[in-house]
UniProtKB/TrEMBL annotation:
Domain of life: Bacteria
Name assigned to this protein: GxGYxY sequence motif-containing protein
Keywords per UniProt: Signal
Pfam families per UniProt: GxGYxYP_C, GxGYxYP_N, GxGYxYP_N_2nd, GxGYxYP_N_3rd
Annotated organism of origin: Paenibacillus germinis
Domain GxGYxYP putative glycoside hydrolase first N-terminal, chain residue ranges per copy: 42-94
Domain GxGYxYP putative glycoside hydrolase third N-terminal: 344-422
Span of domain GxGYxYP putative glycoside hydrolase C-terminal: 441-662
Signal peptide: 1-18
Keyword Ligase: no
Lineage: Bacteria, Bacillati, Bacillota, Bacilli, Bacillales
Domain called GxGYxYP putative glycoside hydrolase second N-terminal: residue spans: 108-179
Length: 671
């Protein structure tokens, strides 16, 4: 079945420019952070959200080749895609991905076969695909595509070529790096976990759950449970989840002992080789170097597998753990997130732009050394799109390293169809200017949802979960977003600007036009980088930045020179600086910096504001900026906090907040 539709999508109709226009038609002037694609006139659309990973890989690499000249393929990759539902240009909706492949097979020069035994060969193959106008395929798909009716040429077969990860990326650096663009880098995991059903697996029952929001390990103890009722199958599975998924203080497990009829059959501490024998699914749990426990926060979990001998009558488990745990047990083998498959998403953008794709860790010496080689070849202000291995700890170390090389980050590894969104046009934003406020002796509070530097957050979670909350617009809220949506996805930027209420203010996510740390960024390149990208803040209206300034993982104050760089080159009225306590500092006598501690629940917000009020004498205004956990909280949580406050409090947006601060401290007005 083919569905024909005709509607309207905002298009980019910029004139061809002599500077920065590739032979394929992509426009990328020197002063532009990201490229602009040609306007889409017609799209072939297919839903691949439930397709096998190798099909997603095939189709996104095809999409990159085809959309380089003009966006013509749109792939539905998420279960929910509100952007597709609103797309109103001529398109055909196809039932089968191979129908779309058939339409464009003549634009494909051949195939590149990845090695399933070396997953990182997927990334090397993606890089080569961009250079050779080829698609990346599994060995199984290779058999189909080299036979009739396709008879595609094998350009490269990576099976058996690389010994390991570093061998693959070293070969790529030595043979492909000089052919790829040096104006962007792409960091993607070569594979991802297979899709798992939501909730607990079949046969699992929760046997213990901490009902209190404990964050200080005050409930640390050894807990014993009888698992005998789950005997009868080959194995028993014990899973640990976060009982309060919104605040990030999930289960911490130090040691486990399992006994069958009184005999120890498993005994280990977290993070040891002995634990690995029983760790069936680590999912997104963490064991940090130097720690004594494994933990899983928010929606993460971890699961162990134990196999008592047949005929066991009594099975018990002893667990030393603390914080917000939920323990569940089952006896039917569940799917595991450790089963991996390739995935698509940002690969279309990498292929179209002929960018190099890799997944190197700052924690592994030979990988870090190779990454530093790559970074040393770049001009200051180069974007790194994608993400990092090891999640949070990888994030902190990697952002620090990239910042030291004057490279900024755009989290985008789960951003889909960027080759299509980059061809849309920025539309004029409605002008919303709240009435000016009279300065009073009140407690002024401004709330800021973080994560907006994350392009895929802007595309997905912010739109689907937060923006759709009925409480949005009831209370002033600052929404961090990325000023670089101006290049990457004008249609997304348009949506937020058109649907914002007078209580919604878009501000720049950390730490401006891109995610970076000012502290490690070289002092000699920071002013020029900010000056070059100021236009993105001005053109998007995101003139106030939320800033993360870290020494690796430790939040630190902003320096005088860093503050001056922001004030003179970004022309900011003030800075919201992530920290662990409230406070206003006037940097260099002219720039207000508001320290912004974070909250994970509405009760956290109520508590932190009540505590701040205790030190207020009521004789002058008090200014408090609060960071909001965007993954666990919603606008209705901010509304609940607001409704709990007395008349002494006034909630304002960041524009109003810094206008009032500047008046209170006798600083000049900023337009």
């Amino acid at each position: 079945m083919v569905i024909l539709c005709v509607t309207m999508l905002p298009f980019s109709i910029s004139a061809a420019q002599a500077d920065g226009v590739t032979p394929d038609g992509i426009k990328w002037p020197k002063n532009q952070a990201l490229p602009t694609f040609n306007q889409p006139k017609h799209l072939d659309v297919v839903n691949v959200s439930n397709a096998p990973g190798d099909v997603k890989l095939l189709m996104t690499t095809l999409q990159g080749i085809v959309n380089r000249e003009r966006p013509r393929i749109y792939l539905i990759q998420n279960k929910v895609d509100p952007w597709y539902n609103e797309m109103t240009i001529p398109y055909k909706l196809h039932d089968n991905s191979m129908d779309v492949f058939d339409l464009y097979k003549n634009e494909v020069k051949g195939i590149i076969i990845y090695d399933p035994k070396t997953p990182d060969s997927i990334n090397v193959a993606t890089t080569l695909a961009g250079l050779k106008n080829a698609v990346v395929v599994s060995p199984e798909l290779a058999g189909k595509l080299t036979a009739a009716p396709y008879k595609l040429k094998v350009i490269e077969d990576f099976r058996g070529k690389f010994k390991n990860k570093i061998d693959a990326y070293t070969w790529q650096y030595e043979h492909l790096w000089n052919q790829t663009t040096h104006r962007m880098l792409i960091g993607l995991s070569p594979d991802t976990s297979i899709s798992l059903p939501p909730g607990l697996p079949e046969s699992f029952m929760t046997i213990a759950e901490e009902k209190r929001q404990i964050r200080d390990a005050s409930n640390r103890g050894t807990y014993e449970y009888d698992l005998s009722s789950y005997l009868g199958n080959e194995a028993i599975y014990v899973r640990f989840d976060d009982s309060f998924t919104q605040d990030g203080w999930g289960p911490a497990v130090h040691a486990i002992t399992v006994k069958a009829d009184g005999k120890v059959i498993a005994q280990f501490d977290a993070g040891t080789p002995e634990e690995e024998l029983y760790l069936y699914d680590r999912q997104n749990s963490k064991y940090l170097p130097g720690a004594d426990h494994r933990f899983a926060d928010n929606g993460s979990y971890f699961m162990y597998e134990f196999k008592p001998s047949a005929g066991t009558k009594l099975l018990t488990i002893s667990v030393e753990m603390w914080n917000q745990y939920k323990v569940s047990v089952g006896n039917i083998r569940p799917l595991s997130s450790e089963q991996k498959e390739p995935y698509g998403y940002l690969r279309d953008y990498a292929v179209a732009n002929k960018a190099m794709v890799f997944w190197l860790s700052t924690d592994v010496p030979d990988q870090r050394a190779l990454l530093e080689k790559i970074l040393s070849d770049l001009e200051p202000g180069t974007p790194y799109l994608g993400w990092f291995s090891n999640d949070f700890e990888g994030e902190a170390a990697s952002v620090d390293l990239l910042s030291r090389h004057s490279v900024f980050v755009l989290a985008a590894d789960w951003f889909h169809n960027m080759t299509v969104f980059s061809g849309t046009k920025v539309e004029a934003a409605p002008k919303i200017k709240p009435n000016p406020l009279k300065l009073e002796n009140k407690i002024y509070v401004t709330f800021t949802f973080g994560e907006g530097d994350n392009l895929q957050y802007d595309l997905n979670h912010m739109r689907e979960i937060l923006w759709e909350d009925p409480a949005r617009g009831k209370v002033p809220i600052n929404w961090t977003s990325s000023p670089l949506l101006y290049d990457a996805a004008p249609m997304v930027l348009n949506y937020y600007r058109k649907t914002a209420t007078e209580n919604d203010l878009l501000i720049a996510g950390p730490s401006g036009a891109g995610y970076f740390n000012p502290h490690p960024w070289p002092e000699e390149t920071l002013p020029d980088f900010l000056r070059d990208n100021y236009r993105y803040l001005k053109q998007t209206g995101m003139t106030i930045p939320m800033v993360i300034n870290r020494d690796i993982t430790k939040d630190i104050p902003i320096s005088s020179s860093e503050a001056a760089a922001y004030e003179h080159n970004y022309k900011v009225p003030g800075i919201l600086l992530v920290g662990d306590q409230f406070g206003i500092e006037i940097m260099n006598g002219t720039l207000p910096v508001s320290m912004m501690p974070g909250i994970g629940t509405a009760q956290d917000g109520i508590n932190i504001l009540a505590e701040a009020k205790k030190g207020w004498d009521g004789n002058s205004p008090l200014f408090l900026s609060v960071g909001v956990n965007a993954w666990g909280m919603r606008p209705h949580d901010i509304q609940a906090i607001a409704e709990s406050l007395g008349d002494q409090y006034k909630i304002v947006n960041a524009d109003q907040y810094f206008t009032l601060i500047r008046e209170a401290y006798g600083l000049s007005k900023k337009e």
